[in-house]
Amino acid sequence: MRIHAPFLTLRKAVPGDAEQLLMLVKELAEYEKEPGAVRTQADDFREGLVNGLFEALVLESPADGIVGMALYFPYFSTWSGKALYLEDFIIREPLRGHGYGQRLFEAVADEALRQGARWVKWQVLDWNEPARRFYLSRGAKLTTGWENGSIEICVADAPVD
Hints:
The chain is α+β, with helices and mostly antiparallel strands. It has one domain: 3-Layer(aba) Sandwich (Aminopeptidase), CATH 3.40.630.30. It has helices at 18-31, 42-50, 100-114, 129-137, and strands spanning 9-12, 55-61, 65-77, 81-91, 119-121. The chain is globular, with a radius of gyration of 17 Å.
């Protein structure tokens, strides 16, 4: 796949970007060896943007549409205060290694400062060496010793009043 990227625009995502955001998330899931794990739909992205559940910065090419995104939301750490959580950071494969990721990452840091956050937190797979190198080269600290926990909550199992 060839992407034309001489002039990429950096901007905030809008609800009309939902389909392209979902496409990028599916590409990321494929790369992370979890192609069937994406259960969100474009409507979830539209609703999330409209209702302020998250924000996203996107890199857009006039010829190819959105070719990169950073999806984030504010959260509060009882240890460190206000922060941004970077849920997904994606640059389409053909554009990696050309400085676009750095541009997008710096924009996330600027947004964190604008929102009064003290830091940005994210996760990276331990086998994703290119991503690990990218983050480390920007001064990130990758911690060990913590395991991620999650539990799926089914609406059908919710208590009824």
